[in-house]
Amino acid sequence: MAKGTASFGKMGKKHTHVKCARCGKPAFNQRQKICASCGFGKTRRLNK
Ligand SMILES: [Zn+2]
Q1: Would you list the domain boundaries of the chain?
Q2: How much distance in Å is there from the Cα of 43 to the middle of ligand 1?
Q3: CA of residue 23 to ligand 1 center, whole Å
Q4: Which H or E run contains 17?
Q5: pTM of the predicted structure, to 2 decimals
């Protein structure tokens, strides 16, 4: 593994998705406050 920028990849980027309180998947968007997986924050129904 090369040292420096090449080995860091996307480490510098902020993680937009955190663990969802409903489905438990790391798909909850912090900025939009909507889960990409189940729709938590957008709809009460589970997004299949
Ligand atoms: Zn969810």
Answers
A1: 15-48
A2: 10
A3: 4
A4: strand 17-18
A5: 0.65
